[in-house]
Amino acid sequence: MSVLVVTGTGTEVGKTVTTAAVAAAALSRGRSVAVLKPAQTGVGPDEPGDAAEVARLAGDVTLRELARYPEPLAPDTAARRAGRPAVRPHEIAEAAEKLAAEHDLVLVEGAGGLLVRFDETGATLADAARLLDAPVLVVAHAGLGTLNATALTGEALRARGLRFPGVVIGSWPVDADLASRCNRTDLPEAAGAPLLGAVPERAGALPPADFRAAAPGWLAPRLDGVWDAERFVKGTA
Ligand SMILES: [Mg+2]
Question: Which residues fall in a coiled-coil region (predicted)?
Answer without folding.
Answer: none
